[in-house]
Amino acid sequence: MAMKFEKTGEGIYMLDVCGYVCPHPQIYTKKSLEKMAEGDVVEVILDNPSSVETITQMCDQVGHDVLDKKTEGGKIYMKIKKG
Amino acid sequence: MEVVDNTEKRNKIWAFLTTGILILISLLYYKTNVYYIYLVAYIWFGFAYGMMLQYGRFCFASASRDLFAAGVPRMAVGILVALVFFSLIQATLASTNMSTFHPAPFGIHTLISGMIFGVGMVLAGGCASGSLYKIGEGNGTSFLAAFFGLCIGQAIFVDVKWFNFLVPQKWIDSAIAKGLPADKLTSSFDTYLAGYVWNQPTLQLSQTKTISEALPGAAKYFIGDSLLNALIPAAVLLIVIYAFYIRKGFMKKRAKAKGRAMGFSDEFTGIWNMITASKRTTIMGVIIGIVAGLHIFVMKGMQIKFGVTNFGQLLTRMGHASDTSIKGTVFDPGYWYITSQEGQFGAWILEKFGWNMRDNIFFGINNGIPEPWRNPALWMSFGIIFGAMVMARLNNEFKLKLPKGELIVWGLLGGLLMGIGSRPALGCNIGAFFIRVAGGDPSGWLYGIGMVAGAFLGVKFFNWWSERKMAKEMEAF
Q1: Element spanning B77, H or E
Q2: Collapsing DSSP states into helix, strand and coil, what is residue B134?
């Protein structure tokens, strides 16, 4: 099993941590955001509901914007802009 | 759209089906013998815990882990809120002689045990109660941790002689001097228990000479057990968490929005904001605290009604004495508890493979090995799984996730460490921390400090591990 962190465009990234359980999705999201520049956007794809609550609060505290959050076919898609 | 609707419909059907089957099982128990109402109460309190844990994402592992790994205090706050409410209800019950709480022997083992458990819960991705609710969400890694670690690993740990090299002679002498049946004093854990743990002091603030003399009547429970042991430490911890993790960011944002210098009242707003930041977790903290108190009240009420102090007595009355220990007891905490019953389930399985699991204190003298369908505390654990499953189905969050790759290793290793870490201090994040702190036993905090320290080490390891993997991924760009 592997996580995926890809650059899909200029300032746009994709982090796929499906299959991973706590605490991996939140750790990988935090580390991805640390490696991005301000204003860059990452789409995080995960399927661990507990992590969503933590990631949302982490973004709120640090000042990142959660642009979009949706659930489709058991997967959660979160679009986060680094603040 | 239709696919989504079908999934939602299917999830709802599963939720109602699961609840319906549990209702049917409860009725069958009642019809078999009225004494089984005692066991049915455990099922439904477990079910309620499961629903609340899943809805609130309530996991003790995430309390310290998310604080260290992501700087998020959501769960730490939720647990402290739950503690506040639970301790007030515990004090009310204790003052009306309706409490089943008892403090535990404490010492350095409490801290060490908490630390082992703390590392384990981070690796496994959930604490003892968190792993159960995550099984209900369909999480296979949590199943590995609970089944192989908490069930099988724990049962083996209390029954083997593998750790005799760690046992000093004075523990052996002290254990033998207690006059226990020789055929029940066989494992390393037996010698540790009878030769060391039982010699350690127990402490409940309301029962200390100073407090019980200074505060007669109910005040000793409210001030000694609740205020001193739970409310004040919880308030101090909330302030510390706020100061270290929230204050700077909050004040910066607020000063910018208000355009004025920040004052003392803004600090209060900041603390309140932190407490209400995750409403679902905080609200569940309040409700879990109240329900855990109600659970004690109901179990004590049943004990009074049936004239017993342990479900083993009812099992014996019903002709199932073989389920019990030589004292005629089974594991029946009378409140929310997680790990011991999983150990019993593990022992029951190992017995089917010819392993003698009754030649030790843990099962042979104290807890017995009931058939799983007659094990009240085990039904509470099943209740948690089913309650969480129903809540996850209703919110379309149930997803069967088989463990793969590294998660198999983390699940097994973490579960094993949790199984081992829950025994030396006679409990886990619930029994050794949550219940004891709320009941006025300061050793709960000792276990809690150990858990947090262990979680810190676990997070350090995962940080290193994920950094390594991220670096590999980023080679491409």
Answers
A1: helix B74-95
A2: helix
| SS3 category, B264 | helix
- How close A82 gets to chain B, by Cα (Å)? 15
Q: What is the pLDDT of residues A59-70, one digit of tens each?
A: 988 889 999 999
For residue B374, the model assigns a pLDDT of 97
Q: Closest approach of chain A CAs to the CA of B31, in angstroms?
A: 39
Inter-chain residue contact A26 with B277, CB threshold 8 Å = no
Is B67 an 8 Å CB contact of chain A?
no
β A12-16/A4-9 pair status: antiparallel
Interface test with B, best of A15, A22, A78 (most B CBs within 10 A): A22
Token readout for B41 is: 């109460």
A18 is catalytic: no
Among the partner-chain residues A6, A27, A72, the one whose CB lies closest to the CB of B466 is A27
User: What is the enclosing helix (H) or strand (E) of A12?
Assistant: strand A12-16
> Does the distance separating the beta carbons of A21 and B401 come in below 8 Å?
yes
| Inter-chain touch A24–B397, beta carbons under 8 Å | no
Degrees (nearest 5) of the Cα angle B356, B357, B360?
A: 115
Which residues of A have a CB under 8 Å from any CB of B? 1-7, 19-24, 26-28, 30-32, 35, 47-50, 53-55, 57-58, 60-63, 71-74
In three-state secondary structure terms, B33 is coil
Spatial CA neighbour of B347 closest among B196, B187, B198, B194: B187
Hunting for tokens 């083992």 — which residue is that? B109
Q: CA dist B157 to B94, B148, B359, B418, B428, Å?
A: 34, 12, 13, 11, 15
The more confident residue out of B358 and B7 is B358
pLDDT at residue B296 in the model: 95
Determine the 3-state secondary structure of A46 from DSSP.
Answer: strand
Least confident of B13-27, B146-160, B456-470: B456-470
Q: What is the pLDDT of residue B381?
A: 98
Average pLDDT for B332-336: 95
- Kindly report, residue by residue over B360-401, the tens digit of the pLDDT: 999 999 999 999 999 999 999 999 999 999 999 999 989 899
Number of domains in chain B: 1
Chain B residues 273-312 with a CB less than 8 Å from chain A: 277-278, 280-281
Instruction: Look at residue A7 in the predicted model and tell me its pLDDT.
Output: 93
* pLDDT tens track for B198-236: 999 999 999 999 999 999 899 999 999 999 999 999 999
A and B: number of Cβ contacts within 8 A: 114
Range of the domain at B208: 2-476
- Residue B454 CA to residue B445 CA, distance in Å, equals 14
